[in-house]
């Protein structure tokens, strides 16, 4: 079995695992996603393919046993793991690599911990390539390596089943070799490496080692059998090795040389590595650098930002961009970038990028959308260049990254030359067809000949043969090379990733071959010798992947890998050779057979290279320290750091403290009617105290006395309770015995959920002189009620106070007091309502003033809302004449932000609406706001809360009942709606079908696109009739037909009776054309065939695949008609000049394979006897020639990701 494990925890999207050859083995390049976790049959290899003792890549070896293998993992199966290339970079001491004797090997076997084997057939097994060294524990640092030789005398007379060697020490650990001289229940020598002191080691011990075991051939050293592997040793797997190391028949054959004078020589070479636990890995401590946090899919941005940060001149320029202490980082790109760079320079832990992306104007959706590094680099450079204008660092971007080249066209036969100078910030280099950077530069400056049909029109000289090319005027100090790993595949109509091997040098000499890349105007005194600074890697496929960067910040031999939050030391081979891409070949699994080596594609490869010119490196790799950073920025960021440390300390000590939130009458008066309308208070906006749990509550009251100036004896605290109807009210006062407890105990009593917060209401009595008074006695007969006053004229609700009332008393008894609290005359008539609940709907019931409070079921903490008694006049005069109608309004009101559909990022206007509004109510309000007479012309579209974009489909006319339905997206509620104004009412539009039809004129070389709008039950005949009234026909009685065209092929002729409702014009082109007269009167032997333009795909020559282009058409061919005769008619139909037409080739194509025709060939004989020739595998007459029409432009990211939109920085 082969086990795989995903390697990229922050990878934005994993590749399709549809082919083992493409994906399943790709992790053998340790920078790709999938991790090969098993080592199959570690067999010897021939000299040409034998890897070094500790190879940089794990090798996958397949078993080719001729009989059932007796390989079995005993008491445990090694846990899957991945082998990181960093684990294998340290070079071991020199040793001779041996080949096996030229004999047939019986079995290729697996790496296993030893155990006593059971008899009988055993399952086939795959050796585990340990250790688990992906993200969590990657071996680092140079190993401690040692070779131990064990000479075993009287080998054939050994009677013991197993034999241990002497103990030897490597890396501070004790080891020994374990052998089974007669085999571990197999007819092979069994040999393992064993942890000698495993029985006495502490619980949870583990150690990682790469090792080889060998049986020395004492006649011919080159036939020594040596096998190597690696393993994470632990208590369950304290030994590891080879159950079937070599056949016993070979070992005991004295002619083979492994047993001389009954002596066997065994060798072990062990390299011990320290395993890093990445859960506790400290990038700053290990490397001196920190990483960047991934927001979801921002690894592409992180790798670019690290690269730019490690260009000190660029960092210094960013620091010197003017910012002020009043700037907000999330709204200022310069300040956000300064802040980010400062934290990268001085922070001890990974840095967040949210402030920077907010300054770009990005929302959460942008952070979860993977973009292209090159695209972001260009957009960011342009934005910074613009923001640097008029400052002391104006031009810094150009000084670093700007170069110039010259586009020229030079006539061959006349003295005429045209040239144009252009600047560039980066160069895009071809990867396909180029072996390295130099080959790409050669291709970049390759001279193109303009001749034949492609002659150049020179002023005064007319059409001339010419040479066209590009030469470089100068190169920038920092050269950014973007490798074109993504290209558009015309055959598959999609973007593909080019994983070809592509080499790049550590030093790049662009003056090579006497400066062949330079223009005559170039300054030859400038030495264009560059040193590689960073390699940005893309690991994955065209539909997503993971970005990271290898950087050497000081251009020394020290390379570092910046992979989001983690920074690790790497060696040069990892940064260069392993990022070339291409294929890797696994060693042959059985040299005795001529089996084909297995190759796999490496999906991890360099995508962007940054070189720094040698002559400029001292200026660019400059010193950047605090004096380059504005004082206000240093103060701000140091303050941020102190606050962060304080929060960290608080978090660490949180278990020792309780947060007590104290609500008072002042809080209720301040919040009710402004911030809240229901219940009494928002506890997140009241005074909170952080109190040690062991503090007695009585001492906490002293703290409250100091804070609020309220005597301890005048304080009474009430516990809050959440009721079954989801309201939250004061429930009961604290008892004296509770106040005698500690704060921590009180919290546990009051809060069953063990929340770290305690919420209290502080009851205080204030006298007329504003001094606190002694509290009234609280008895069971007293009820604490809270009162809100409603003013229907002002549509205002406010808190007016609280009262203790007798449970057997009646509201009539307190009316005078309530009028006094409201400022009404003592005898004013008022109505009382109880606020019962507000979710999911409002319940506010009228209170009978003649009933007792107990009869009305009122209790402690209840809320009474009151108002002047409504009159018939007030009910007509006010929108919400009473408390229930006002609370209903408040509960359902919704501020909606309306955006024009064509400007989905910008709010046009806001309206206060009710969630209960019907569809008609909403469109009527919108129409009135934008002064539109007919609300039916408004079409609304809901908001997608995840993409932050309009939903693909608009809301149908009366397709929802209420505004609340328009705002809901899955389980989230939005406050955004998009609108558009239609030219006809929406109900009428919904009954119509709109089709875009391209009309090809019969005699003119023009195409006109018409929009046909007809009722959905219309037919194709109706479309044709409508089209006739809109286009110019060759004659009044011309007949039209409607075709379905897709990628330059005709797939369907629509019958006139077909309904248009299901016709799709989004993906297929609908083409209308006149039916030629010759097609109307087909003879019995005539045939209607398809004719398509095509050219060979230059990338698919071997498979003879073709690429169609241009407008396809029908042609009538007759029985016995030759190609020469048909060519005359085609030329006339297409109006192609003789000179150009003479270069065309004609072919019969079936299933995409061209069979070229001669003029004398009878064309009709090639086609099958059928009329319905359209379809996916149609046969057609192909016209092969170059496509001279303007090419469709495919940008680097076009069609690359269906979910991707262009990078934009909005601020």
Description:
- This protein is of the alpha+beta class.
- The protein folds into seven domains: 145-272, Apoptosis, Tumor Necrosis Factor Receptor Associated Protein 2, Chain A (Sandwich), CATH 2.60.210.10; 283-397, Cysteine proteinases (Cathepsin B, Chain A); 401-585 and 600-621, Cathepsin B, Chain A; 631-750, no CATH class; 889-982, Ubiquitin-like (UB roll), CATH 3.10.20.90; 983-1075, Ubiquitin-like (UB roll), CATH 3.10.20; 1077-1210, Ubiquitin-like (UB roll) (Roll), CATH 3.10.20.
- 19% of the residues lie in helices and 31% in strands.
- The protein is built from 29 helices and 61 strands.
- Strands 17, 22, 25, 26, 27, 28, 29 and 32 form an eight-stranded mixed beta sheet that branches. Strands 4, 7, 8, 9, 10 and 13 form a six-stranded antiparallel beta sheet that branches.
- A hairpin with an 8-residue loop joins strand 45 (893-900) and strand 46.
- The longest helix is centred in the middle third of the chain and has 22 residues, at 631-652.
- The relative contact order is 0.06.
Q: How is the topology of this model organized?
A:
Blueprint: E1 4-6, H1 20-24, E2 34-36, E3 38-39, E4 111-112, E5 127-128, E6 139-152, E7 163-164, E8 168-170, E9 173-180, E10 188-195, E11 206-215, E12 225-234, E13 239-247, H2 248-251, E14 264-275, H3 283-287, H4 299-309, H5 312-319, H6 333-346, H7 354-359, H8 364-367, H9 373-388, H10 396-401, E15 403-411, E16 417-424, E17 427-430, H11 437-444, E18 448-450, E19 456-458, E20 462-464, E21 466-474, E22 478-484, E23 486-489, E24 494-497, E25 507-509, H12 512-515, E26 529-541, E27 544-551, E28 559-563, E29 566-570, H13 572-575, E30 583-585, E31 599-601, E32 604-613, H14 617-620, H15 631-652, E33 657-663, H16 665-671, E34 687-692, H17 697-708, E35 716-722, E36 728-733, H18 736-739, H19 743-750, E37 757-763, E38 765-766, E39 772-773, E40 782-791, E41 796-806, H20 815-822, E42 830-837, E43 843-846, E44 863-868, H21 872-877, H22 883-892, E45 893-900, E46 909-914, H23 919-929, E47 938-944, E48 949-950, H24 963-967, E49 968-969, E50 972-973, E51 976-981, H25 986-990, E52 992-1000, E53 1007-1015, H26 1020-1028, E54 1040-1046, ...
Biased composition (Polar residues): 134-146
Organism: Apostasia shenzhenica
Catalytic activity: Thiol-dependent hydrolysis of ester, thioester, amide, peptide and isopeptide bonds formed by the C-terminal Gly of ubiquitin (a 76-residue protein attached to proteins as an intracellular targeting signal)
């Amino acid at each position: 079995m082969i086990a795989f494990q995903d390697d990229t925890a922050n990878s934005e999207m994993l590749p399709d695992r549809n082919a083992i050859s493409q994906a399943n083995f790709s992790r053998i390049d340790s920078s790709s996603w999938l991790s090969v976790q098993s080592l199959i049959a570690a067999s010897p290899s021939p000299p040409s393919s034998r890897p070094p003792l500790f190879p940089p890549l794990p090798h996958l070896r397949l078993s080719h046993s001729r009989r059932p293998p007796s390989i079995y993992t005993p008491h445990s199966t090694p846990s899957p793991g991945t082998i990181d290339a960093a684990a294998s970079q340290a070079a071991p001491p020199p040793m001779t690599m041996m080949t096996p004797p030229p004999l047939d090997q019986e079995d290729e076997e697996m790496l296993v911990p030893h155990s006593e084997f059971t008899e009988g057939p055993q399952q086939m097994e795959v050796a585990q390539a340990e250790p688990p060294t992906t993200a969590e524990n990657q071996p680092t640092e140079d190993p401690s390596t040692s070779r131990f030789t064990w000479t075993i005398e009287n080998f054939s007379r050994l009677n013991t089943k197993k034999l241990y060697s002497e103990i030897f020490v490597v890396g501070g650990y004790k080891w020994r070799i374990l052998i089974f001289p007669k085999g571990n229940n197999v007819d092979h020598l069994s040999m393992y490496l064993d942890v000698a002191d495993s029985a006495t080691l502490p619980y949870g011990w583990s150690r990682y080692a790469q090792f080889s075991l060998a049986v020395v051939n004492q006649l011919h050293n080159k036939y020594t059998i040596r096998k190597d592997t690696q393993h994470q040793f632990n208590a369950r797997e304290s030994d590891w090795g080879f159950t079937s190391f070599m056949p016993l028949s070979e070992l005991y054959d004295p002619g083979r040389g492994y047993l001389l004078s009954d002596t066997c020589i065994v060798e072990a070479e062990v390299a011990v590595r320290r395993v890093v636990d990445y859960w506790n890995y400290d990038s700053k401590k290990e490397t001196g650098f920190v990483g960047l946090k991934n927001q979801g899919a921002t690894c592409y941005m992180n790798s670019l930002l690290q690269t730019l940060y490690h260009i000190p001149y660029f960092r210094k320029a960013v620091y010197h961009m003017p910012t002020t202490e009043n700037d907000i980082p999330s709204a200022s790109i310069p300040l956000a970038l300064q802040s980010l760079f400062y934290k990268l320079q001085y922070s001890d832990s990974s840095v967040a990028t949210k402030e920077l992306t907010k300054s770009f104007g990005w929302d959460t959706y942008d952070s979860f959308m993977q973009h292209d590094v090159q695209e972001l680099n260009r957009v960011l450079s342009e934005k910074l260049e613009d923001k640097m204008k008029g400052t002391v660092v104006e031009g810094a971007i150009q000084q670093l990254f700007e170069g110039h080249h010259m586009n020229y066209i030079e006539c061959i036969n006349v003295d005429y030359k045209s040239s144009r100078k252009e600047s560039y910030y980066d160069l895009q280099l071809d990867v396909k067809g180029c072996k390295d950077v130099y080959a790409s530069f050669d291709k970049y400056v390759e001279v193109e000949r303009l001749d034949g049909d492609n002659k150049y029109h020179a002023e005064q000289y007319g059409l001339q043969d010419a040479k066209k090319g590009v030469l470089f005027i100068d190169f920038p100090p920092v050269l950014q090379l973007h490798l074109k790993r993504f290209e558009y595949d015309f055959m598959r109509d999609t973007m593909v990733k080019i994983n070809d091997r592509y080499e790049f040098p550590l030093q790049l000499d662009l003056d090579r071959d006497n400066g062949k890349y330079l223009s005559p105007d170039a300054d030859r005194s400038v030495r264009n010798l560059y040193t590689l600074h960073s390699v940005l890697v893309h690991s994955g496929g065209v539909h997503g992947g993971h970005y990271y960067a290898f950087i050497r910040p000081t251009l020394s031999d020290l390379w570092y890998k910046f992979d989001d939050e983690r920074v690790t030391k790497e060696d040069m081979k990892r940064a260069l050779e392993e990022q070339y891409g291409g294929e890797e070949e696994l060693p042959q699994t059985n040299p005795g057979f001529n089996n084909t080596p297995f190759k796999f594609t490496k999906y991890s490869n360099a995508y962007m290279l940054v070189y720094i010119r040698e002559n400029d490196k001292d200026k660019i790799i400059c010193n950047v320290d605090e004096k380059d950073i504005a004082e206000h920025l240093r103060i701000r960021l140091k303050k941020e750091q102190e606050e962060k440390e304080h929060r960290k300390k608080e978090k660490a000590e949180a278990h020792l403290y309780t947060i007590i939130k104290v609500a008072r009458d002042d809080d209720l008066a301040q919040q009710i009617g402004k911030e809240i309308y229901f219940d009494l208070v928002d506890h997140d906006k009241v005074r909170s105290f952080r109190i040690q749990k062991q503090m007695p509550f009585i001492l906490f009251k002293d703290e409250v006395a100091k804070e609020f100036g309220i005597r301890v004896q005048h304080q009474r605290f009430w516990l809050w309770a959440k009721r079954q109807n989801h309201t939250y009210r004061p429930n009961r006062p604290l008892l004296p015995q509770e106040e005698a407890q500690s704060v921590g105990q009180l919290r546990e009593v009051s809060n069953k959920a063990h929340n770290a917060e305690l919420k209290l209401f502080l009851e205080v009595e204030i006298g007329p002189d504003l001094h606190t008074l002694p509290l009234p006695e609280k008895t069971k007969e007293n009820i604490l009620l809270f009162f809100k006053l409603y003013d229907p004229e002002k549509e205002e609700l406010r808190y007016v106070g609280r009262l203790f009332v007798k449970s057997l008393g009646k509201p009539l008894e307190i009316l005078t007091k309530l009028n006094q609290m409201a400022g009404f005359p003592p005898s004013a008539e008022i109505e009382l309502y109880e606020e019962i609940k507000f979710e999911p709907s409002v319940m506010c019931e009228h209170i009978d003033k003649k009933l007792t409070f107990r009869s009305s079921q009122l209790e402690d903490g209840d809320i009474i809302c009151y108002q002047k008694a409504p009159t018939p006049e007030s009910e007509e005069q006010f929108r919400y004449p009473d408390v229930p109608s006002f609370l209903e309004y408040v509960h359902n009101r919704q501020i909606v932000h309306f955006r024009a559909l064509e400007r989905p990022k910008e709010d046009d206007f806001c309206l206060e609406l009710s969630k209960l509004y019907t569809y008609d109510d909403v469109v009527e309000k919108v129409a009135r706001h934008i002064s539109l007479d007919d609300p039916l012309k408004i079409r609304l579209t809901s908001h997608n809360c995840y993409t932050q974009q309009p939903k693909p489909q608009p809301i149908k006319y009366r397709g929802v009942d209420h505004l609340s339905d328009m705002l809901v997206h899955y389980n989230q509620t939005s406050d955004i709606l998009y609108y558009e104004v239609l030219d006809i009412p929406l109900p009428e539009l919904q009954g119509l079908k709109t089709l875009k039809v391209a009309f090809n004129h019969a005699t003119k070389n023009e195409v006109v696109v018409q929009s046909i709008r007809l009722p959905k039950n219309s037919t194709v005949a109706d479309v044709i009739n409508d089209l006739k009234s809109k286009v110019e026909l060759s004659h009044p009685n011309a007949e039209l037909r409607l075709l379905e065209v897709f990628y330059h092929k005709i797939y369907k002729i629509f019958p006139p009776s077909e309904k248009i409702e299901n016709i799709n014009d989004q993906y297929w082109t609908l083409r209308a054309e006149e039916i030629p007269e010759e097609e109307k009167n087909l003879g019995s032997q005539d045939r209607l065939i398809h004719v398509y333009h095509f050219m060979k795909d230059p990338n698919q020559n071997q498979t003879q695949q073709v690429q169609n282009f241009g407008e396809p058409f029908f042609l009538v061919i007759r029985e016995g008609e030759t190609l020469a005769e048909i060519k005359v008619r085609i030329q006339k139909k297409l109006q192609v000049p003789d000179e150009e037409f003479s270069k065309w080739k004609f072919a019969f194509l079936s299933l995409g394979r061209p069979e070229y025709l001669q003029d004398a060939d009878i064309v009709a004989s090639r086609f099958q006897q059928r009329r319905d020739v359209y379809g996916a595998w149609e046969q057609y007459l192909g016209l092969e020639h170059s496509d001279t029409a303007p090419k469709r432009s495919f940008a680097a990211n076009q069609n690359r990701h269906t979910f991707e939109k262009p990078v934009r920085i909005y601020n």
